[in-house]
Amino acid sequence: MFKRVLFCVPESPNIDKDPPQIPHIGFGYLMEMLNKHNIENDVIDMRLGYKYTDLKRKLDSFKPDLVGVTMWTYYHELAYDLVNKLKADGYTVAIGGPHVSTFGGDVLKECQADLAVKHEGEYTIIDLCTRTDWENIEGIAYRSNNQIIENADRPRIKDLDSLQFPRYAKFELSKYARKMISVVTSRGCPYNCTFCPIKVVLGKLYVFRSAKSVADEISYWYEQGYKELDIVDDNFAVRRERVYEICNLLEGKHFKSLRLVCCNGIRADLVDADILKRMYEVGFREIAFGVESGNSQVLKTVKKAEDVARIERSIEAACKLGYEVTLFFIVGLPGETLENLEDSIKLAYKYPIARAKFMNLVPFPATELFDWAVKNNYLTKDPKEYLNHIAHHEFEPLLNTPEYTVAQRRQGLARVKKVMADIKKRSVARQMGGNPVSRLMANIIYSGPVHGAIFGVLNASPPLRRLVNKILNKLGWVFYE
């Protein structure tokens, strides 16, 4: 049983370059659950520049009997190091997050944590704090008599309205780079894309909050002075009628200057001009589409279950309505070649989008893509190496296939880097008037030295970055880093 829980977000490897924009939403939900059950809790987000000495001061003052550490697969060894330091100082440590949900109890073989919480943790954390029979608690792995015991998974939470949305009362909200709050309105994914790890982390069951619950959360943050909210669902628009209901409720609240964004990516085939128009009417202004590839055969190969023509209709509709549109592409998917990569590039240039994000393909364990790559001996690096050091934005090829060699993949990745920069320049130039002077200014802003200086200053001062974002929003401009 635990009476005092401290949550810790590990330090980011890029902390000095890119401070976090928003608080950790997973810990936000866990802390609300502990508050509901009158269990003392606190949090420290080491991504805000804190070192272990700062964490030690927090530990000494709060005196937790359980420390919870989250971890992503990218740079998970940093989280391991933190866990091991905490254990050396005598603390009981629980770990969770996407990395743990993917690898389960095996993570306990790689770090010294006492237990691991898999998948959703809201009810698991209450069991851990109120019970001592770990062997009967679903959703955990733990150490016992020098062995690692992995219990059965806990059934998915089906009533998301039963969870209180995060208020982040103990987070240092003023220190984050943007005055923006993330909102989760659904969990899970019903689709079968071969490359996606979401099914591994949360499963295929798609569960959603009621429209009223979502509108209530947006209202709460609006009243707290937050006018920009990011809907971070993986599948916000799966239930079309729910989206309309949310829009109707928001319209009835008569918000002014509300800016809703869907930066995590929406399936293009789930929206059309009508629903996009309705969303725009109540404050949605930015939307991202997970295109993945501009080649229909590649999409079929990876079981995306979309065709390019349908995707383009949604992109065109969103651009015409005035959305800032982001397109996500993945470079190196099965079936792609250096030649048909041009289909993705042509699509990125075809519409007046705000930005295109071409991401390096990372084969995550337990996905169909990973199994295919291992079976055919296509991996260029050992998973233990690349899973810690290489993310989607780090352009080092991880596959080598007969139709798309490592050399060709490097060539393709170098090509899309230039495309991404070019599209950002075009976007900024359009926002500033689309004339020769604006194009010159955009080129200056995104030149190497000037770009580095501007965003270096902004990243070093979250309050300044928030002020600049506020001014740009009033002007109707967005400058992407």
Corresponding CATH architecture of the largest domain: Alpha-Beta Horseshoe
How far the N terminus sits from the C terminus, by CA atoms, comes to: 45 Å
User: Per the principal axes of the C-alpha atoms, what is the gross shape?
Assistant: globular
Look at the helices and sheets and give the structural class. Answer: alpha/beta
Q: How many individual domains?
A: 2
Helix content: 40-55%
CATH homology superfamily of the largest domain: tm_1862 like domain
Radius of gyration: 23 Å
Quick recap:
This protein has 481 residues and is of the alpha/beta class. The chain has helices spanning 25-36, 52-62, 76-88, 98-103, 122-130, 198-202, 211-223, 240-252, 273-281, 296-301, 308-321, 341-350, 368-375, 383-389, 406-431, 436-445, 448-460, 462-475, and strands at 4-9, 40-45, 66-70, 93-96, 115-117, 140-144, 147-150, 181-183, 186-187, 207-208, 228-231, 259-266, 284-292, 324-331, 355-360. The chain has 2 domains: 4-150, Cobalamin-binding domain (Rossmann fold), CATH 3.40.50; 177-433, Alpha-Beta Horseshoe (pyruvate-formate lyase- activating enzyme).
Describe the overall structure.
The protein is globular. α7 runs parallel beside α8, α15 crosses α16 and α17 (448-460) packs across α18 (462-475). It is of the alpha/beta class and 481 residues long. Strands 2-1-3-4-5-6-7 form a 7-stranded mixed β-sheet, with helices on both faces. The chain has a 6-stranded parallel β-sheet with strand order 8-11-12-13-14-15. The protein contains 18 helices and 15 strands. Helix content is 41%, strand content 16%. The protein folds into 2 domains: 4-150, Rossmann fold (3-Layer(aba) Sandwich); 177-433, tm_1862 like domain (pyruvate-formate lyase- activating enzyme, Alpha-Beta Horseshoe). The chain has helices spanning 25-36, 52-62, 76-88, 98-103, 122-130, 198-202, 211-223, 240-252, 273-281, 296-301, 308-321, 341-350, 368-375, 383-389, 406-431, 436-445, 448-460, 462-475; strands at residues 4-9, 40-45, 66-70, 93-96, 115-117, 140-144, 147-150, 181-183, 186-187, 207-208, 228-231, 259-266, 284-292, 324-331, 355-360.
